[in-house]
Design goal:
389 residues; alpha/beta; six-stranded mixed β-sheet; 11 helices
Length: 389
């Protein structure tokens, strides 16, 4: 059986204020064409269909068109909710949509109720395991503690029990949305636990033939049978080096992974992370290839240059992010704020603040005179108010 594994569409998300709806629509076109071209038997969408619980209307319309097009192909689609989705909203009408071959799995209680497909080698049970918020599902699964590992393990126990009751040789696939140990994160994934991401071991998926994972935005192979498809588009500059793709996986007669191929997704615009002094970024011929890229620039000039964004945009019209990290900046000493200010005049503190906010370089004589005049005026005003009390 051949299936297409994708996840983390994040419909409705923008990229540094750039609307990505057109790029997301191009991805849906590519998805449908891939299903048709490769004669895919099932599509797996492992969560984070939307970018937020209440998505904008254009994103909902794109999702609706995607479902209609997949249903028209007659290819079953299994889709779970992720931590960005509202499971209740995504799951509305699931019973009716199920009749069209679009199987939404958003209720944790139904995780052991699979979609059962068949090929010449027998049945394949596809289990949809939506994102599990530990505090909300602990009682449902009778987990021993409030943790992702505990609730995911308990849910998998239910799945393995259902699988054991089926005909011998039944092959199995699980869709899940979680952070599995060994996965590499990026800046655009929302933390899935208070106080830090809580990883679960890949062994939690033991006993099934393939685990189609969502949540991490980089395409990754945790093991032959446990994979992330990653997001189809880049959603942060930390993904600049990602190759965006989907997994086309073929499950063999005995449940073995007979083939696994990455299908590249359309790239709306390349990403570039540039770092260095402003003049170097503007003049270095090696950066000519980034003229049409979305650019994140980090300037290392010791003093913040004048009008840096406009100057960068003249060479890189699609500059979206500008940061400053001056070379030679003194490291923080670890001293408290009060200790750092002890013995320093108001004038010295103000001059240090000016240097900090503009990325280095202390005020010149004219700027120091302005600061001094301001402090003199404040002191004079304080004296007048004190006199009239």
């Amino acid at each position: 059986m051949k299936f297409l594994h994708t996840s983390d569409w994040h419909l409705g998300r923008s990229f540094h204020r750039v609307n990505l709806l057109g790029a997301q629509a191009a991805f849906v076109d590519h998805l449908v064409e891939t299903v048709r071209e490769h004669e895919v038997d099932a599509v797996l969408v492992a969560g984070d269909v939307y970018d937020r619980a209440v998505p904008p209307l254009p994103a909902v319309e794109l999702y609706d068109r995607a479902l209609h097009r997949l249903a028209e192909l007659g290819v079953p689609t299994v889709m779970i909710s992720g931590n960005h989705d509202s499971a209740r909203r995504l799951g509305v009408g699931a019973g009716l949509i199920d009749r069209a071959g679009i199987h939404l799995r958003t209720d944790p209680a139904g995780c052991a109720d699979p979609v059962v497909l068949a090929d010449v080698h027998g049945e394949v049970a596809l289990y949809g395991l939506p994102y599990l918020e530990p505090a909300l599902v602990k009682d449902e699964f009778g987990a021993e503690k409030v943790s992702h590992e505990a609730v995911l393990g308990a849910a998998m126990d239910r799945i393995r029990a259902d699988l054991a009751a089926r005909a011998p040789g039944t092959r199995s696939i699980v869709l899940a949305h979680a952070f599995v140990t060994g996965g590499q994160t990026s800046d655009s994934e929302r933390d899935i636990s208070v106080g830090g991401v809580e990883a679960v071991p890949a062994s939690v998926f033991d006993g099934v033939d393939y685990a189609a994972l969502g949540h991490l935005h980089g395409c990754q192979t945790i093991s032959e049978r446990v994979r992330y498809s990653g997001s189809p588009l880049a959603y942060s500059f930390s993904e600049a080096d990602h190759r965006k793709s989907m997994w086309l996986v073929e499950l063999g007669a005995e449940g073995e992974i007979a083939a696994a191929e990455r299908i590249d997704t359309p790239v709306p615009r390349a990403l570039a992370r540039l770092r260095g002094p402003l003049e170097a970024l503007l003049e270095d011929p090696a950066h000519a290839r980034h003229a049409d890229s979305w650019v994140e620039a980090t300037l290392t000039d010791p003093v913040r240059p004048d009008d840096p964004m406009a100057r960068l945009a003249a060479r890189f019209p699609h500059t979206l992010s500008l940061a400053f990290d001056p070379e030679g900046r003194e490291e923080e000493t670890g001293a408290s704020y009060a200790q750092r200010l002890k013995g320093r005049s108001d004038q010295e503190i103000a001059e240090d603040f000016v240097a900090h906010v503009r990325g280095g370089g202390h005020p010149d004589e004219a700027e120091r005179a302005v600061l001094q005049g301001a402090f003199d005026d404040v002191r004079a005003d304080d004296s007048r108010q004190e006199t009239h009390r």
